[in-house]
TrEMBL record:
The chain crosses the membrane at residues 311-331. Residues 1-35 form the signal peptide. GO terms for biological process: negative regulation of canonical Wnt signaling pathway. GO terms for cellular component: plasma membrane. Pfam families: LRR_1, LRR_8. InterPro entries: Cys-rich_flank_reg_C (IPR000483), Leu-rich_rpt (IPR001611), Leu-rich_rpt_typical-subtyp (IPR003591), LRR_dom_sf (IPR032675), LRRNT (IPR000372), Wnt_signaling_inhibitor (IPR052286). Coiled coil: none annotated. The keyword Transmembrane helix applies. Residues 249-300 form the LRRCT domain. This is LRRCT domain-containing protein. Keywords: Leucine-rich repeat, Membrane, Repeat, Signal, Transmembrane, Transmembrane helix.
Amino acid sequence: MRLLSSTCGEIRRRGLGSAIFHLLVVLAVSLPCLSCPDRCVCSSQTVKCQKQDLDSIPHSIPSNTKILFVTGNNISSISADSFPSPLEQLTDLYLSGNEIQSVDSEVFDNLPNLVRLDLSNNNIQEFSERAFPHSNSLQVLNLSRSFHNYSQTNDVLNNLLSGNLAHLTVLDLSDNDLLVPPDNMPASLPSLLTLNLQNASIVSLRNGTLTLPLLRDLHLQDNRLKNLPSAILSDFSLAPGLHIHLSGNPWRCDCFIEDMVAWLKNSTQVVDAQNLTCAYPGVLRRQALLHLQQTRLKCAGNMEGVLETSYVFLGLVLALIGVIFLLVLYLNRKGIKRWMYNIRDACRDHMEGYHYRYEINSDPRLANLSINSDV
Ligand SMILES: *[C@@H]1O[C@H](CO)[C@@H](O)[C@H](O)[C@H]1NC(C)=O
Ligand SMILES: *[C@@H]1O[C@H](CO)[C@@H](O)[C@H](O)[C@H]1NC(C)=O
Ligand SMILES: *[C@@H]1O[C@H](CO)[C@@H](O)[C@H](O)[C@H]1NC(C)=O
Ligand SMILES: *[C@@H]1O[C@H](CO)[C@@H](O)[C@H](O)[C@H]1NC(C)=O
Ligand SMILES: *[C@@H]1O[C@H](CO)[C@@H](O)[C@H](O)[C@H]1NC(C)=O
Ligand SMILES: *[C@@H]1O[C@H](CO)[C@@H](O)[C@H](O)[C@H]1NC(C)=O
Ligand SMILES: *[C@@H]1O[C@H](CO)[C@@H](O)[C@H](O)[C@H]1NC(C)=O
């Protein structure tokens, strides 16, 4: 096939013979050159080889192909051998759903005008940093659901991004287990406009990893973000035209989220700000972040909380003491009654004695008598 396609190129270039000869040449040579590969469907400049159990990319792709689908097959790796002859006009290559594990060096060297590459739904474990030619025009790269082993993903992505992707405008990394976004994006992707990190198990954002000055659309919905620290918020404000999607994250509404809530209320960047809700603590679950009152944002460890709990505790202890006191009184009611009677009797005796003495003292005659009797 390689032989045929090169002969084909030569004859077309020569193509100045007689009209009949030219016609014969076209019939004899150009036909196989532009003929459709086995198990594929060709229409105008689009070739589709879908769900055919192919274990490699067919070699006889017509040289004028613009759009090529080899999807839903069983191709475990792609390498320089996958595209042995130049496909100068190819702009769109769809390789989704193939279980591709490795993307080797120089694989796309024969596709100099590739603009859109779809590698979604694969199982990529190796990606050569030399996969793309040094000067390439790749603009859209789809790696959605392409990585199954998260312990390898960041290495693979770092490799991939250190290739030359200066013209990339759209990167789709959705539906992968990334945990954190790759950290060399600002250096590698100066032209990036759209970054899709939806459902990528992202637990935190490190400042500096998303400082992409041209970025217009950032999809971060359906991840595991609990808060956005202020360093990230200031990274975002460096990209004034940015639209951010943040819904579907389990926001933790404690005192640390105050900065983010203030930013949300002021910023016009968050497209779905209305839809952000708290996941923790339980009392604030499903409360909209935009309608949170600052006084309800508490931290378990902060002073206010401690004071409040200590007041409650003190109150409980006092109440308990009161109850015990009443109980003791109740159990001793007979003793107390007896004791009260005793006291009353003692008082009465005492008062009577006092009264008697008073009467004696107040009567001058008796007073003399008593003085005399004392003597
Ligand atoms: C895919 O290819 C592998 C070998 O590369 C083979 O073991 C497997 O059976 C193939 N799967 C299908 C569905 O053909
Ligand atoms: C990437 O591929 C997935 C599924 O394979 C698709 O849903 C998504 O729209 C694609 N992304 C882009 C940017 O084309
Ligand atoms: C994931 O990658 C690590 C490191 O390369 C390897 O040890 C582990 O077996 C892989 N796990 C799976 C499920 O393939
Ligand atoms: C999220 O991504 C995982 C793979 O990482 C996938 O299994 C799951 O279906 C995705 N969820 C949605 C809602 O797309
Ligand atoms: C991240 O933020 C910290 C503190 O705000 C700062 O010291 C550090 O330099 C920042 N890192 C980057 C890469 O911007
Ligand atoms: C919003 O933020 C900008 C810049 O940080 C600030 O100038 C402006 O006063 C803020 N607006 C409100 C209503 O807080
Ligand atoms: C917010 O959520 C509602 C209901 O789930 C949905 O219809 C709406 O499109 C969402 N808005 C945005 C901006 O995502």
